[in-house]
Amino acid sequence: MYGYTMKTTIHQVLQRVLLRLPRSFPRALPRRSHSGCAEHATIPASSYSRQIRPTVLVSRLYQPSNLRNVGQDSRLSGEMTCKSQRLMQQAGLIHPSSPGCYYYLPATVRSMEKLVRLIDQEMQGIGGQKLDVPSLCSAELWKASERWDLVGKELFRLKDRHGADYCLGPTHEEAVTTLVAHQTTLSYRQLPLLLYQITRKFRDEPKPRFGLLRGREFYMKDMYSFDVSEKAAYQTYEAVCHAYTRLFSRLGLRCVQVQADTGNIGGKLSHEFQLPADIGEDRLLVCETCSFSANVEIMASDRTDCPQCKTGTLVESKGIEVGHTFYLGKKYSHIFNAAFSNAQKKPGIAEMGCFGLGVTRILAAAIEVTSTEDGICWPGLLAPYQVCVVPPKRGSKVDEVAGLAEELAHTLGETLPPLRGEVVLDDRTQMTIGKRLKDANRLGYPYVVIVGQGALEETPRFEVICQQTGETMFLSKDGLLDLLGRVETI
User: Fewer beta carbons under 10 A from the terminal one: N or C of the chain?
Assistant: First the structure.
């Protein structure tokens, strides 16, 4: 009885309190004033349901300037002999943690997520299905394929508390093949089966160097294919190679597909996808006459005549490996019994392929081959942000157009759907425009819009710097919208 009375009393009190409360609560959202201090605008509760896209402010981006001067700390930076490593650290994109391992700061994560979306489009466009495989791999699987001893010291090995051996997977042929083998009802109608993941990989590099180009921890896309026959497996192999070619074409990167060694992964056929670069560690032989190209490791290094067309001359160059494809045959499927039921309802062993893309390596390699010594030039699709709007310095003669800069940054993001979330406002108005332009060049915004003297004209004009072409234009608002409306994003 007492408990019932207490519940009734509490219920009555709560009703009276709720009746006295206002029907709506104001909500405060931060807004940056010209002084750089945070102000708040009150928004009624009725507008909660509307999606609010606040302008991204450079002052709020996590790119600490004190993290940029790591070149003096040789213990962390190692040998700064690579342009991409220097530019990425100076721009606050990465920060060394330990040899071969890096913090990926927010701008880098944005670029990597864009690259992942692009890879997803191409892999799923040929029938790929995405999954996630444990990084911690049982030694039993690797011993079954004999790679536990074959790979050697590059494999990170560890024991659990029970004394069982494991490794941190640099690739996952054994694990994925075992997964497919466990599906005892696999039919030929379900083939080809293409399974891929984009995850962290680990390799105990003896001498990590060149930033993200050769590290001990990195992101990679690895795909594994299962086919009914050798002919079908070759068709899948070609489909993946064509998808890789499209990927690099969309990025605007010149990539060479070269014949390569199968290495410790094994198989019958292998190709590397190489970005030509002086910093590259692979030596390539390319015919000047036909389409033949190969890694020098599978040929005599002093050979100059083309084995394909017989008339062309082989020219040696260097490249950065950003992708690798293998036709495996039944190397793994036979060991782990990855079988399927064929048209005659008899068991068959699947023909396999595996296909890798170095995600973080592509980011660094793209910077290496497209950038200047002074600033990053991203492939357009991968830039962390597409547009940076620069208002005048606080207290300058044209300070009155600062509000127009804020309005412009907001308008670009809302009027042009592809640019939503892609426009930043450099609100550090205590700095000169020149210093902010230097930072913009360092980070590599494809378009920089300066709101200055021209914005005071009867028809406001904006100075627009296109980083990829180096061209500077003076455009009206309509002209600016027309130019940026053609920007492709992903």
Answer: N
